């Protein structure tokens, strides 16, 4: 059962390959398979909530030898969020993507991406993790270049090169780790690292891991590929990337930090905090100085990643719960802003703030669909963004991490500023004269509804925070409880 | 103008390469070889043919489209992983082995790894053909 989130999209890929060029059928297959993945995620979530974390072994080989899949509450939450997100983006893409891209394998690739993401969330083996990363990256490489526009290829080169360097560093780290401990199983590794005496060697491999995942998660100073490549493909693809790819990087940092960092905790904490702070500040400053909606939103991803890393650094249950909540909030809100930006583009034909305007007057619903996730990102109550930041800042003060917490609060204000800038320019201001005659296109219904559902989910997450916070705290607790993880896998 | 020597060589090398690729696939179980190299070799046979006679003719020669080959390969791999689950209720990706008696003590021992390898073979061959034929048509 634990393997189904990987097998289902794979089976869908096979079906999609056999129905190549049958446009309508492929759309239905995609919707059905994404729904099935979501249902499967709900079932896994249900079991984890009822019985606690559980594991499954591939090929029936017992734990440290075979490949293990593990689901604890963190994995289950992220699986569910990915399932919902991919279903919504799939529905959105039906109306949004052009026919050329649809028939050039868009559906196949998006399933490939889901396979990789789900696999990364579930696997309990570091080499297997590398494999899922590759599955994810290869699909995303092709998705970034799909359609082969000049601009896209330009961004894709930076994306591919930097991520390949990340993969090489990741692989090197795996090799070093395996050389020192003789195991690849994450639970077994955590157990052996506690007893190991070669702290210098371990810390150097862990630093390599941190750099590799830092590249994938787009933290300072490794984020340059993100603003170069994210704004180039069609917005449906960017939305999906924004919701999943960098979040996988953050998930792995969360997992590795809690499982493997056993010595020099104070030093690691300082490093992580500095990285988090600089990521937040530099991301938001660049966002504040851009004038293309997609660029602003892309820089925001970076800044938001900083918040998640800050939760890792706080390293208390509250901090981790905050980071997990923040990931989920971001998967919804960030994707929703991109989806809304795509609708604005469909409506007025531009992403450039200077050419846009008056959406509030012409299409209040569209204005609302953008405003809601934007406010959520800025952290206005009662949106989930507020509660995410509340958890993190409260956790930060409790743990005595004053500097980073104050930085986080200041960054929030600049975030609000840049969201207000989009609001003022694209939605509030009078449309510039030369483009006044530009015709306004009708919006594709599926895309509009997908965005509305996304907005509904954001409101629901915000309003239900009181009820859901117990799960996030429990997820944080399970993440910190390394013994529980080891017991789950090895027995 | 394409070289006549290349044409004749390609014509005769194609069956040779294809049968060798099958040998590589089967002997890969215990010795060097396997689905990946086998698939590469099978793909190369068609690429060589394409270099001699052009991409158009090669497409006509292949009975199935490269895309179908890739799909079929993935299907084989997927089924080989699920076989144990479906047949014996075992774990996922568990090996399934059975032997077909041929004559006396001599028997074919077959297992799900061979199915997986055949999947890789088809996938790699299909991928190579897809990539190379597209490049040839553009050039």
Could you list some keywords that capture this structure?
heterodimer, A: mainly alpha, two-stranded antiparallel sheet, 2 strands, 79% helix, B: 139 residues, mainly alpha, two-stranded antiparallel ribbon, 9% strand
Explain how this protein is built:
- The complex is a heterodimer of chains A (491) and B (139).
- Chain A is an all-alpha fold and 491 residues long.
- Chain A has one domain.
- Chain A contains 20 helices and two strands.
- The model of chain A has no long low-confidence stretch (mean pLDDT 88).
- With 139 residues, chain B is mostly helical.
- Chain B has one domain.
- Chain B is elongated, with a radius of gyration of 18 Å.
- The interface between A and B is medium-sized, with 14 and 17 residues.
Name the helix and strand elements of chain B from N-terminus to C-terminus, one letter apiece: HHHHEEH
Given as residue ranges, the uncertain stretches of chain A (5+ residues, pLDDT < 50) are none
Query: Roughly what is the average pLDDT of chain B, rounded to an integer?
Result: 86
Overall mean pLDDT of chain A: 88
Largest β sheet strand count, sense and barrel closure of chain A: 2 strands, antiparallel
C-alpha Rg of chain B (nearest Å): 18 Å
What is the count of β-strands of chain B?
2
Tell me what portion of residues of chain A adopts beta-strand conformation. Answer: under 5%
So what's the oligomer here? Answer: heterodimer
**Segments of chain B where pLDDT lies below 50 for 5+ residues?**
none
């Amino acid at each position: 059962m634990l393997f189904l989130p990987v097998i289902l999209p794979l089976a869908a890929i096979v079906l999609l390959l056999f129905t190549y060029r049958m446009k309508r059928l492929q759309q239905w297959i995609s919707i059905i398979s994404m729904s099935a993945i979501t249902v499967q995620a709900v079932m896994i979530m249900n079991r984890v909530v009822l019985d606690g974390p559980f594991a499954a072994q591939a090929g029936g080989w017992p734990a440290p030898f075979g490949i293990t899949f593990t689901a604890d509450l963190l994995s289950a939450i992220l699986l569910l969020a990915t399932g919902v997100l991919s279903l919504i983006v799939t529905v959105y893409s039906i109306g949004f993507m052009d026919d050329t891209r649809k028939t050039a394998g868009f559906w196949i690739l998006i399933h490939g991406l889901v396979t990789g993401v789900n696999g990364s969330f579930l696997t309990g083996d570091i080499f297997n993790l590398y494999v899922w990363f590759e599955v994810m990256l290869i699909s995303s490489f092709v998705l970034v270049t799909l359609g082969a526009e000049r601009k896209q290829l330009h961004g894709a080169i930076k994306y591919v090169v930097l991520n390949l360097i990340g993969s090489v560093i990741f692989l090197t780290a795996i090799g070093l780790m395996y050389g020192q401990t003789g195991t690849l199983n994450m639970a077994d590794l955590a157990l052996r690292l506690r007893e190991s005496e070669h702290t210098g060697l371990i810390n150097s491999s862990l630093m390599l891991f941190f750099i590799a995942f830092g590249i994938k998660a787009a933290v300072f100073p490794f984020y340059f590929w993100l603003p170069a490549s994210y704004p180039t493909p069609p917005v449906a693809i960017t939305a999906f990337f924004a919701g999943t790819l960098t979040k996988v990087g953050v998930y792995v940092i969360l997992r590795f930090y809690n499982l493997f960092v056993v010595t020099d905790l104070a030093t690691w904490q300082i490093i992580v905090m500095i990285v988090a702070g600089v990521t937040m500040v530099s991301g938001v400053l660049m966002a504040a100085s851009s004038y293309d909606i997609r660029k602003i939103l892309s820089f925001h991803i970076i800044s938001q990643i900083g918040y998640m890393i800050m939760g890792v650094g706080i390293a208390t249950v509250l901090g981790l719960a905050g980071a997990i909540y923040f990931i989920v909030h971001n998967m919804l809100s960030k994707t929703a802003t991109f989806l809304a930006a795509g609708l604005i583009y469909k409506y007025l034909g531009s992403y450039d703030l200077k050419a846009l305007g008056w959406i509030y007057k012409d299409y209040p619903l569209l204005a609302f669909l953008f405003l809601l996730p934007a406010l959520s990102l800025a952290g206005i109550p009662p949106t989930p963004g507020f509660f995410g930041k509340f958890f993190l800042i409260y956790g930060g003060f409790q743990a005595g991490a004053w500097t980073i917490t104050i930085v986080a609060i200041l960054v929030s204000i600049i975030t609000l500023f840049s969201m207000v800038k989009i609001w003022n320019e694209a939605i509030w201001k009078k449309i510039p004269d030369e483009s006044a005659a530009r015709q306004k296109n009708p919006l594709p219904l599926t895309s509009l509804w997908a965005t509305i559902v996304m907005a509904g989910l954001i409101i629901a997450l915000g309003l239900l925070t009181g009820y859901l916070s117990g799960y996030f705290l429990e997820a944080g607790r399970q993440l910190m409880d390394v013994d529980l993880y080891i017991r789950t896998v090895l027995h | 103008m394409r070289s006549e020597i290349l044409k004749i060589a390609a014509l005769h090398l194609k069956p040779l390469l294809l049968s060798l690729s099958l040998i590589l696939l089967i002997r890969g179980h215990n010795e060097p070889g396997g689905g990946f190299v086998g698939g590469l070799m099978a793909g190369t046979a068609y690429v060589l043919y394409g270099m001699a006679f052009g991409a158009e003719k090669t497409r006509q020669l292949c009975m199935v489209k490269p895309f179908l080959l890739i799909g079929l390969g993935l299907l084989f791999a997927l089924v080989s992983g699920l076989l144990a689950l479906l047949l014996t209720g075992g774990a996922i990706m568990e090996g399934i082995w059975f032997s077909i008696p041929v004559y006396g003590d001599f028997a074919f021992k077959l297992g799900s790894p061979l199915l997986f390898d055949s999947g890789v073979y088809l996938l790699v061959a299909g991928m190579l053909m897809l990539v190379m034929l597209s490049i040839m048509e553009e050039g």
